[in-house]
Amino acid sequence: MKPMTHFLSLLLLLICLLATVHGGGHDYQDALSKCILFFEGQRSGVLPQDQRQSWRANSGLSDGWTYNTDLTGGYYDAGDNVKFGFPMAFTTTMLAWSVIEFGDSMPPNEHRNALVALRWGTDYLLKTVSQPNRIFVQVGDPIIDHNCWERPEDMDTARTVYAVDSPNPASDVAGETAAALSASSMAFRSSDPSYADTLLRNAMKAFEFADTYRGAYSDNANVRDGVCPFYCDFDGYQDELLWSAAWLRRVTQDGGYLDYIQNNGKTLGAEDNINEFGWDNKHAGLNVLISKEVLEGNMYNLESYKSSADSFMCTLIPESSSSHIEYTPAGLIYKPGGSNLQHVTSISFLLLVYANYLARTSRSLNCGNIDVSPTTLRQIAKKQVDYILGDNPMGLSYMVGYSDHYPQRIHHRGSSLPSIKDHPQPIACKEGSVYFNSSNPNPNPLVGALVGGPGEDDVYEDDRADFRKSEPTTYINAPFVGVLAYFVANPSPN
Fold it and tell me: Which end of the chain is more exposed for a tag (fewer CB within 10 A), N or C?
């Protein structure tokens, strides 16, 4: 009987391994919990008593003093200590959209945690538009900051405040801030209607600033040296105007915003760059967002947006004649340029949202030579998620703290330096270099952080210095919150 017992044990092990390879072994709820927890490690300002990333402490407490205003709070966007307004606003929009579309799929405690993460962003964004005809777009000099390797709690670098005053334009940042605040007002409507009203009122004000003074914020000489080359507006400001108008339309159902989209779509290039979606280019997300009302029959004159959304989805289907999105040999969506997982998580989010819109209206997608069902879109997204969580040639989870095998040397100052709790003495700007250059694992795991991910060959070296692969960002995680919430409720999509 012993050989048979041994055989059965091996067979069971093989079945378990196969289940893991095919995604059956993933704990999406655990991944969701960690994905939201990540944002607590990126907090700036005074941390609350229930702070769970306990190696962090208060930081950036004088932010805004040069303008005699309170600009504390918000998020550090990545592994540095700068608060970049453009990506922070997009992060906030995507957290809100995650709650709007998939909040019902979240366990109640994680739904609350997601709203807490969202409010940390919106409370700060409200401060950035608190003064008439001015928007604060950044805190921290990135050149000086990037020349140091120090904990946010030790910051002794210039906390330069970058502001744009009318009539100088900031349509991109103001537009994305309007989108973030309006989407967030929808996310908070049922739990905190008064706060939702405040968010919506300020969203309208930010949109008016964005539309009245049209242009890219990074064209302004007074902020260009601070925001470029990190978060310049590379793809134009027009998409943010339409994106914010589309969100205000969704939230308010006001016909004025519908008229704005109809009257400005062509002049603002609504159909340009449809294959991009991220902190700088909103076109694919804009097309998906507007398609909801087109599919529901509420926007007959905006069919072109749905056609563009269809076209984008078809580019993701390998079997489609219009497929042209690159995949790695193991099946990960890949776009050159670094920090690839930002594309993977945002595109996966759009796949699931569009699949839901199609399914609710009993539609499918025609990609020329093939018809594509909502289930197919969900399966593509699931393959991306499972790859990120460990179903890849490296056998590596690209989320810190998920599974037993994940990146140990992420490009992140607070994570890689000793915690101020363990090492209360300040670590000066250049004193941190020894930790940056160390081959040791980071002492403070930034649980839930998604790194930039592997290269086009599916290889990841776990090198702290290779920031394109090893640096986490808030805008990689934000759409993944919604993606994981969907799979918590639908682990085997159909």
Answer: N
